[in-house]
Amino acid sequence: MVTAEVSERRLAIPNNPITGVLLAIPAYFFGVWLGNLFGLIDDQNTGVILGYVFATAAFLIGVGFLNYPLERLFGWSVSPITEPDENRGLGRFFRLSLDHKVIGMQYLVTILIMLLFGGIGAMAIRTSLLSPNSAITPPGQYIMLIGLHAVMMIFITSAVIVGPFGNYLVPLMIGARRMAFPRLEALSFWVVPPAAVILAAAAFWGGFPTGWTGYPPLSEQAGQGMDSYIVGFALIAIALVSSGVNMLATIITLRAPGMTWTRLPIFVWGIFTTSILGLLAAPVLAAALVQLTLDRTVQTSFFLASNGGSNYLWQNLFWFFGHPEVYIFILPAFGIIMEIVPHFARKPLWGYRTGVVGLFGVALLSWFVWQHHLFVSGIAPVLRPFYMLSTELISIPTGIIFLVTLGTLWRARVWFTVPMLFCMGFLFNFLIGGISGVYLSDVPTDVTLHGSYFSMAHFHYTIMGGEIFALMAACYYWLPKMTGKMLSPTIGRLHFWWMFIAFNSTFFPLFIIGLLNMPRRVSAYDPGLQGLNTWVTVSAYFLFGSMILFAGNLIYSLFFVSRKAVANPWHARSLEWQVPTPVPARNFDRVPLIVAGPYDYGVPNARPVADFGGRVGATGGG
Amino acid sequence: MAVRTHAGAALPEAELALDARVVSVGVWLFLSADLFFFAGWWFSYFYLRALNNNNAWIVDGLTRPNKAFGLVVLLLFILSAVTYWATTRVAVRSALFGLLAPVSLVLGVAACLFQGYGMWHLGFGLTQGGYPSVFAGSTVSWLIQIVFAVVWLATVVAQVGPAGDTRRRPHAAASFGWILLFLAAIGIINYFLLYLVA
Amino acid sequence: MSTFRIEEADRPHVIRLAILWVILSVIGVIAVLQIQIPPGDETVQGADQTRTLSLMTAMATPVFIGVVMMIIYSAIYFRRKGRELVDGPPMLGNAPVQVVWITVSTIMVLFLAFVGITELATNSSAQTVPGQSSGTAAAGGSEMQVQVIAQQWYFTYRYADYSGVETTHLYLPVDRPVELHVTSLDIIHSFWAYQLGVKADANPGVDNVFHVTPQKLGSFQVRCAELCGIWHGEMADSQGQVVSQSDFDSWIAQQQQDYAAIQKVVPSYAPFYFPLPLTKGS
Question: C-alpha distances in angstroms, B3 versus A12, A16, A79?
Fold first, then answer.
């Protein structure tokens, strides 16, 4: 390999988030000024949207995303992405880094901070519901709270597993020394903090009244807070697409020699299927958001029935994105559960191929079910039997996930660690979430359950009881590799039981409340339901307390006790545990040669998973 | 302007082959996402057209966009895309590419400018019903994408020099040709739907 | 596929689990069938929904019990005994078990879909496209036409058969099929009459048709079930009534009288209607 020293010119501005913020503030005001120049001054929507867009662009430029295009445009020598980032200091976490491990950690910290804010929103909502009328929070503030909580949580849950764990672990699991498109990967992270800030900025405009669904015409009637919804969601769509391109390309092209499709860890399959959904669903949302923007700024009429539009257009486009979106949440969680259980059951993953088929079945069917959100909306009633059937069919591949997990546990030698506890908790919660989904898929019962607390309880069981429990399992399982420190198992056990009981005590009564005539998103409800609601609120406080306990465990274990993790504390076979801790800058000295599957526990004469001294491969130079 | 140095200009052969595959797969993935984006617009078009709520898909007396003008823009971009794509098929490292890529760039810039002018002088108000909304929305979406594509095309042209990235990684420049071709195809479909069928 | 045979080591677990599952399921199903599930039997549609909910709960119970039992059983019996790590038996999968699992879940799902579709096809809770009539509506066009008009933040009701009188509360005569035409004047609302078993989105510019047949006297609540702005939570009315035909006649006569008096002074409840207010025979 030729190693000539090449001089490279670049723009002489320091690239870091502070520069980004300093550029973003004037850019925002410039956008507002420009928008008010051309748009309708009286509603300022053009200005606010342009302000957000310019501010985000300026922030990204300040962070350093313009360097590469400019280097190219000026004909300078471009910096190759194949160069390892040898910087091991703490500063790398606060800069644009192309190292997938740094991006994973950046994502994890950002998302956990966002989770705190989303959780505080939930507590405010529950506090308001202590009173059956609007005595505690006025209705305007109440719908602002539910909007902010909902959209913040959607942002979080879209990325909470793919972002930290997908980015960090996929290259390690497939034996790659880098990601396929590190710049896209970095972009998929760096748009998330602006999205969160822009969303939070809605509070200054009085929030937006539509919840996360953003149904027009209400969202066209809404004030400037709605602009935050549009720009924030658009940024998340960008994150989903760029992360999808990067993940899929990485998994398709950068697998180590010997890493055949049937040796791929099932978590990677979870990321793979979820990336397909994100890649293809988010652009549809983007198109709908452009339409909403045009309606709100230049007064087009995409969603106004009186002027040639239709509010069903938004409902169709939104749910065509929205239903795959909820599987974007859960597929990586399925991956985590099926990944972790074999390592602690000390058995091969039972029915690996069936499990992969299950993941793909869910991913495929999720495209054909979106109108089940619209059973009572009046759209094409003749199509309802089809959507009812397709929705109910999804429970077959979902059932496969349970079959695979329970089959793996059968006659196992289960080592009950904290991640394993969370996996068991996931199974219980997601079972309830899944069964309640069948209730909602049936048209006659959906007529009474739709839009009630029953559906709200259903998706909290699947997202919080499912995805967040899987997230906790992943944190306890993989953080030793990512941070080099073990999390305290004693606090972990307490955390699990506390969270599990508080979670079920919070959300199970909501099924009953929903059956008893309480619609979602109301600040005032039937006083007869106050007893149950108070119970739920108190449980929700305990649930929040369990999350605080988790944060405490993180801080305590990472900064105060510092129990150093060995390279492979769980004695797991899979590839990511075979690299040293902390993981070297380029993951592997040489590209490993994969010689066996990751789950061959108890298989006679099973070979170790990879040969690390092997050949020099071609993934990432150097 | 800061100067920093790094090691290694030339990439080993194996690395280049892998890079070619990565970029090619990435481009196809991106195009599939972009197809869904425009599919969202086509769905909107057919949906609103079929519903024709309040008979306001096209209101009486609406000035239609100029078909000839639209055709000029479209042809400019098609020429740009096809020129670029065809020369990359021959060879990115050839002198022909160095000659024709700038031509393609000029054609692309012209298409963007004409389309931008066209959007500024629509001839109808955006509040005039369903069709003006869909026309403006999908054309603006296409315009923004071709602007980004043309900017990238400019960076490819800027890097044709002997030490440039286009010369070092010709496969990446060749894969980019598919994006131009794809956007041209979208332009043709949009022209058919928005100008001819309406 | 070889013949289905339970391995020696599996046998005690399988027998234990099977017995436990049958006992618990029987108890569970009997228990859940005792639960009085809303919305109740005030209308034919509500009764249908209650029945379907009971059926689903009865079907879900054995599934739920089976899986939870497996989780707890694994936690107890398949736990590692000693301190050192031991690998379990290397079972890679079992084709017959997978086939059985998938077949059973498919049959259950198809059965549920069949039940749902049958109800949609035969039952008057079916929502229909405007202009078409559903099952029971075909009975000589005897359905009473009521247009439900939603706006921020209340519902009004226009009785097309009674010279288009518009009221603020919904009264329905018992045992007479009603065709509800739900629409909105501004943004999306959802008309949810809980005890009636009706929920229909009210979209501006759309006539969303639902059918309901009250079969018992009583009152019902009306709520908005789609987020519609700040007073969404207060968009409710608890004065809906299912009354006898004679009571209904006197009530509607009173309403017509009041309405005629009001109409002289103030315009109708909304400045303009799109789609146009429903009138008889439209």
Answer: 9, 18, 12
Residues 6+ apart with CB under 8 A from C137: C124, C128, C143, C177, C179, C211
pLDDT more than 70, % of chain A: 95
Q: Which residue of chain C is at minimal alpha-carbon distance from B52? A: C205
For A:122-181, CB contacts with B below 8 A are 180-181
**Helix, strand, or coil (residue C195):** coil
Average pLDDT score, chain A = 90
Mean pLDDT, rounded, for A414-425: 94
And the tokens for C248? 């209904």
- Peptide bond before C275: cis, by omega within 30 degrees of 0? yes
Q: Which two tokens stand for residue A328?
A: 């974007």
Contact A74 B36 (CB under 8 A): no
Query: A194: closest CA among A148, A231, A246?
Result: A231
**For residue B53, which residues of chain C lie inside 8 Å, CB to CB?**
205
* Among A511, A420, A405, CA closest to A461: A511
Both tokens assigned to B37: 């984006």
The residues near A582 (Cβ < 8 Å, ≥ 6 apart) are A484
Give this prediction's pTM: 0.93
Chain A residues within an 8 Å CB radius of C91: 347-348, 350, 407, 410-411
Contact partners for chain C, using 3 or more CB pairs closer than 8 A, are: A, B
Task: Give how far Cα A434 sits from Cα of A43, A185, A191, A269, B131, Å.
Answer: 44, 32, 32, 21, 42
**More reliable by pLDDT, A577 or C138:** A577
| Cis amide prior to A217 (ω within 30 degrees) | yes
Q: A391 with A441: CB under 8 angstroms?
A: yes
List the beta bridge partners of residue A594. A610
Mean pLDDT of A371-395: 89
What whole-number distance in Å separates Cα of residue B48 and Cα of residue B130?
7
Question: Cα dihedral angle (A263, A265, A268, A269), rounded to 10 degrees?
Answer: 70
Nearest chain C Cα to A346, which residue?
C87
pLDDT of residue A610 exceeding 60, the answer is: yes
Q: Is B53 on the interface with C (CB under 8 A)?
A: yes
Q: Check CB contact under 8 Å for A621 and B12.
A: yes
The answer to whether the complex's ipTM is over 0.85 is yes
* A152-158: average pLDDT: 94
Asked whether A446 and A492 are in contact (CB, 8 A), the reply is: no
Q: C282 vs B124, which has greater pLDDT?
A: B124
More confident residue, A619 or A558: A558
Residues of A numbered 499-538 whose beta carbons fall under 8 angstroms of chain C's beta carbons: which are they?
515-517, 519-526
What average pLDDT does this structure show over A504-513? Answer: 95
The pLDDT tens digits for A30-48 are: 999 999 888 777 788 999 9
- What is the C-alpha R_g of chain B? 20
pLDDT digits (tens, 9 = 90+) for B28-59: 999 999 999 999 999 999 999 998 888 889 88
A529: amino acid identity, one letter: L
Instruction: Check CB contact of A20 with chain C, cutoff 8 Å.
Output: no
Name the residue among B134, B36, B39 with its Cα closest to residue A294.
B134
Q: How far is B52 from chain C (nearest CA, A)?
A: 11
Are A236 and A199 within 8 A, CB to CB?
Answer: no
How far A306 CA lies from chain B's nearest CA (Å)?
A: 6
Please state, in angstroms and rounded to a whole number, the distance separating the CA atoms of residues A621 and A246: 18
Mean pLDDT throughout C43-61? 91
The dihedral over CA atoms of A200, A206, A209, A215, expressed in degrees to the nearest 10, equals -70
- Cβ pair B141:A287 closer than 8 A: yes
Q: How far is Cα C71 from Cα C11, in angstroms, rounded to an integer? A: 18
Between C53, C56, C90, which is nearest A348 by CB?
C90
